[in-house]
Amino acid sequence: MLLFLWIETSNEYFNFDWVTFLGTGYWFFWSIFILSLAGILTAYSSLLLLLGFLLLWERIELYLHLCHKILILLVILLCVILMFIIYKFWKERWLVAGLSLQIFAPYVHLVSITVMVILFWPVAFYVARLERKVRMRRYRMTHSEKKRLKKCNVITRLRGLQVAVGLPFLLILLSLYLMPLGIYSPCIQEKENLGPKPTIFGHRGAPMLGPENTMMSFEKAVEHGAHGLETDIHLSYDHVPFLMHDFDLKRTTNIGEVQPESAFENPAFFNWDFLSTPNAGKWFVKPELRPFYNMKPLSEADKERARNQSIPTLADLLTLAEKERKFVIFDLHCPPPKHPLRHTFQHLVCLSQQYVRSVAPGFQHVGRLVSVETLAKNNISIINVDYKKLFPNGLRDYKAANIHINVYTVNEPWLFSLAWCSRINSVTTDNTGLLSQLDHPHFFMTPKFYVFMWLLADIISVLFIVAIFCFHWWRETEKEKLFETSSTRTDLHIAMKPPARVVESPWTLAALYPALPKSGKEHQGHFNFAAPSKKLLPIKNAVTPLKPGKHEIQPPMPTTVFELTQAPTRQATSEATFQTTLPTLKVDKPTMPSIEVPYP
Fold first, then answer.
1. Strands (DSSP E) along 374-526, which ranges?
2. Which of 211, 301, 349, 527 could form a disulfide with 281 if both were Cys (CB 3.0 to 4.6 A apart)?
3. pLDDT value of residue 494
4. How far apart are CA 435 and CA 232, in angstroms?
5. Is residue 11 a contact partner of residue 415, using CB atoms and an 8 Å limit?
6. Is residue 528 part of a domain?
7. Residue where a domain terminates, one of 436, 463, 482
8. Could you list the residue range(s) of the whole structural domain that residue 120 is in?
9. In angstroms, rounded to a whole number, what is the distance separating the alpha carbons of residues 102 and 442?
10. What is the pLDDT of residues 514-530, one digit of tens each?
């Protein structure tokens, strides 16, 4: 926001630098410094934002370094402070930004749609990915999971994420599509309704081509086709009107070299004999003191001419204007306190209209931004107003009353185009050389062309958005089909594989199990089986001899006694292995070795 505001108010850079000069006493392009600072901070923050987005895209955890944390906090703090200062002490800049939207709104609309199309790529990717997750979960879901989802439905949450991401995007996009219905731009009109080009008044002459308020500056304005000349008038101590804008001589003369102790004195306290001696042009050729950052380089002849300039009088300017048949508009500054003309000035102002009309019938009194009724009462048909105050208040009443409108100070081509499309009669400008060359307003278009451009941009953006969505949807669908195919093959492979045949070896403990006493089966844990003291019954009828199948025939193994090896530790016990062979049994005299079975 700060960068946008500062770019759009480039027409006010000189005034900002001049105000800071009054406060600091040092001339510097503070406006360009703030513009560069805002650009660097915006680029830095945007780069961090882009890197964070890419890391999240790759599912990498974000970790912001402490230096970046401090810098981000400083950026936020600085922007808040500057925005507060502008809002508190320079509210007019907000009006300038609003005026710029009247010119740039159609192009901002097109750029916004382009940005939304670019942003739709990650949005469509995310929505399509969530849809694939929903389908995969449904595919894997079992009957028990379906019951559990009634209490905690994960699929509903995924659907909610889709709505949370996609719905705001669609609403913003829809509002952008309908934005032209609410756009008003004076430069969107039929060609036959376009008014004539505003005439140009040179503000203090042509201060980009020569030192301001010098005869060189006024002559340069005349050379570049200025319709009139604008200046500021002070009254010297000996009643001579001279041309000067500032309330001291420090910035536009070499008073610091001639008489340093008087550098900050009001020039009205000096006699004309002294005021005619300081040089009023050497400062202009110094690079560090040039008033405008976008000035064209001066030729050597113009540099030499500028070095020989002095403070002119009002009579010198009127002589030039009479010779070149130019209009002159000026501001008469009130003499400071303790000036001999301080009290008579008030009387002069009150009687100026009648006095001027009686002495010079051709002169006209120029009014300010007052009501049409007040202008008509004072018989004023010309107003000279600040453009920042005129446009917000409207022009219809003044145009209907046939009031000639002159606005100041217009330096940027877009602002001059706005005045042209609004049928402003004349403008006061520092940039006489550039504005005099314009033969058509910038950003001008007919309503039919704008409607065509609007519909074409909307249709193309819709086609791109549909194509991007279909591409992501198709890609996620292919991933889903690949997953289902691989899952089906795995299930089919498991189903076709014959179950492992469990063949119980006849030479196991199960063969002896029926011969154990019933009481021994009920014991758990570590227990011992010993041969009973009583004579056991023969077990040849109790144990059915097991015969191995043909496919289980194995080489004969040596006959040994059944043993159970127990490890001394618990871990070894759990990993104990049975070493079993066919026990030696005598049918007539059955014997049972002592066995210790560990409880697993």
1. 382-386, 404-408, 426-429
2. 211
3. 55
4. 22
5. yes
6. no
7. 436
8. 107-193+445-490
9. 12
10. 444 444 444 444 444 44
Residue 394 lies in a domain: yes
Within the chain, how many helices (H) and strands (E) appear? Answer: 22, 11
Question: How far is it, in rounded angstroms, from Cα 583 to Cα 69?
Answer: 79
Is pLDDT at 552 greater than 70 in this prediction?
no
Map residue 101 onto helix, strand or coil. Answer: helix
The alpha carbon of residue 118 and the mean position of all alpha carbons in its chain are separated, in whole angstroms, by 14
The Cα 460–Cα 77 span in angstroms is: 41
Which residues, 6 or more positions from 425, have their beta carbon under 8 angstroms from its beta carbon? Answer: 198, 199, 404, 405, 406
Number of domains composing the chain: 2
Is residue 151, in this structure, part of any structural domain at all? yes
Same domain, 258 and 382: yes
- Partnered with residue 531 across adjacent β-strands are none
Whether residues 163 and 298 share a domain: the answer is no
Asked if residue 346 and residue 229 are part of one domain, the reply reads yes
Averaged pLDDT, 251-274: 91
**Do both 324 and 401 map to the same domain?**
yes
Cα distance between residue 310 and residue 238, in whole Å:
18
Does residue 262 share a domain with residue 132?
no
Res 24: pLDDT: 87
Contact 422, 402 (CB under 8 A): no
Quick check: 117 and 464 in contact, CB under 8 A? yes
Asked if 269 and 284 sit in the same domain, the reply is yes
Chain-wide mean pLDDT for the chain? 80
CB 215 within 8 A of CB 202: no
124 and 247: one domain? no
pLDDT in tens, 402-452: 899 999 999 999 999 999 999 999 999 999 999 999 999 998 999 999 999
Residue-wise pLDDT for 135-168, tens only, equals: 777 766 655 555 555 545 666 777 788 888 888 9
The string of pLDDT tens digits covering residues 318-333 is 999 999 999 999 888 8
In the 8-state DSSP scheme, what is residue 492? H
Question: Over 90: is that where the pLDDT of 304 sits?
Answer: yes
Last residue of some domain: 371, 405, 436? 436
Mean pLDDT of 191-202: 93
Q: What are phi and psi of 240, to 5 degrees?
A: -100, 120
pLDDT band of 598, cuts 50, 70, 90: low
Handedness of CA 466, 472, 475, 477 (dihedral sign): negative
What's the pLDDT score for residue 150? 52
| CA dist., res. 248 & res. 262, Å (int) | 9
Residues in Cβ contact with 529 at an 8 Å cutoff, skipping those fewer than 6 apart: 516, 520, 592, 594, 595, 597
Question: 430 lies in a domain?
Answer: yes
Q: What is the CATH number of the domain that holds 266?
A: 3.20.20.190
Does residue 549 have a pLDDT over 60? no
| Same domain flag for 249 and 318 | yes
3-state helix, strand, coil in the chain (%, to 5): 55, 10, 35
CA distance 410 to 436: 12
| E strand map for 162-248 | 199-203, 228-235, 241-243
